Amino acid sequence: AKEEHENAERRKSILMSQAAAGRVTFMEIFLEQALQDIVWPRETLVSFEIQDGGARLVFDVDLPEIEDMPTKVAAVPQRGYKLSVKELSQTKVQQLYADHVHSITFRLIAEAFALLPTLSEVILSAFTQRADPSTGHETDQYLLSVRVRRDDWAQINFDALESVDVVEALGRFELRRSMTKTGAFKPTSPF
């Protein structure tokens, strides 16, 4: 078991060093393994392509639908043991969904830049399935698309992440998003 563990660690070390050196095949394998370790609270499917010899990463993300978001909130009063369950307003559900979508986007960009030092740019486009009002068939509708350069990303204070609003943070970059103040998305076109 010890020998098997040491061999696995050696292979992992080689993979990491080759990925850090910008070898595209190793970058793809390393990123794929890292993304598989992320446990998303709702089904989130991520595909990607590394371009320009390891300088650019393009994500395409199939987001959970807004219908997958919680619609109720539970609370316990200070006195007593009775659980109080309340229905969330449509606006609150939309805001939760908007935060969730932006958090997924922020996390994926952060993972990419942290794991792959040769990347200079990440482009992420995120979509969900919606019924097309003209046909009634479900189609993919992009909710946002963002282009982030490493130099711009480095300006975020990662030592104070609790004070970073991911919706505002992504707005600092080249962003295609049509979203109301209440968090309702309208379709947009990806980069």
Helix-strand blueprint:
Elements: H1 2-20, H2 24-36, E1 45-51, E2 56-62, E3 72-75, E4 84-87, H3 90-115, E5 121-131, E6 138-149, H4 150-153, H5 166-170, E7 174-179, E8 185-186
Parallel strand pairs: 2-5
Antiparallel strand pairs: 1-2, 3-4, 5-6, 6-7, 7-8
Helix pairs in contact: 1-2, 2-3
Helix content: 25-40%
The sequence of SSEs as H and E is: HHEEEEHEEHHEE
Number of strands: 8
Q: What share of residues are in beta strands?
A: 25-35%
Across the major sheet, the strand order is: 1-2-5-6-7-8
What form results from the Cα inertia axes?
Answer: globular
- Class computed from helices, strands and strand pairing: alpha+beta
Mean pLDDT: 94
Q: What value does the Rg take, in angstroms?
A: 20 Å
Number of helices, counting only DSSP H or I runs of 4 residues or more: 5
Low-confidence stretches: none
Alpha-carbon distance between the two ends: 48 Å
| Biggest pleated sheet | 6 strands, mixed
Description:
The strands form two sheets. Strands 1-2-5-6-7-8 form a six-stranded mixed sheet. The protein has helices at residues 2-20, 24-36, 90-115, 150-153, 166-170, and strands spanning 45-51, 56-62, 72-75, 84-87, 121-131, 138-149, 174-179, 185-186. The radius of gyration is 20 Å and the shape is globular. A hairpin with a 4-residue loop joins strand 1 and strand 2 (56-62). Helices cover 35% and strands 28% of the residues. Helix 2 runs antiparallel to helix 3. It is of the alpha+beta class and 191 residues long. It has five helices and eight strands.
